[in-house]
Specification:
Strand order of the largest sheet: 2-3-1-4
CATH superfamily: Transposase IS200-like
Distance between the termini: 30 Å
Structural class: alpha+beta
Number of domains: 1
CATH architecture: 2-Layer Sandwich
Shape: globular
Amino acid sequence: MESRPTTPRSQLQFVRDFLKSDKIKYRKALALQKLEQDPDEIFVNLKYHLLWNTAHRKPVFKPTQKYFEDIFDLFLGFGELVGGLAALMWLAPDHVHIYVESDGEKSLEAIVKKLKSASSKAIIKTVTDIKVGPGKGKGLWDKAYFLETIG
C-alpha cells in the first residue's frame, strides 16, 4: 500500500500530485470529449474546500501522523455521498480540511451534513482510541463549518 504523507509540506504536495493524477486528467478529458460531441450538454464539476473543528476544539487527533492514513482512507470512501470525490487535505489535532468535487446534484448543506455524520460514525467506530465527550448528542464534530469554492 502507498505510504501516506505525514508532514504538512508532504500532505500539501500529496494533494497537488493527486489533482494532477491520471484519474483527474481522464475525467477532464472525457468531459471535454462529451462537450465536443454535444455542445448543449453541460458538465458540472464543483470544487470545494471544507473545514470543521472537533467538538470544543478538543485535540483528538494528536499526534496527527498516527491518524492521517486511516482518516484519509475513510474520506476517500465518501465520494458517493457528495456525488464525486471527497479527500482529506489536512489533519490537525482539532480540525480537518476536506477537498470535495461534486456534480452539483446535492446542496452544500447536504454534502457537509452527510460528510460530517458519516465521518464521525466511521472515525469513532474504526479509530478506537479516539475519545469524544460523554452524554447524548456529544459527537466528534462541532456544528459549525467553513466552506469556500475553489473551482
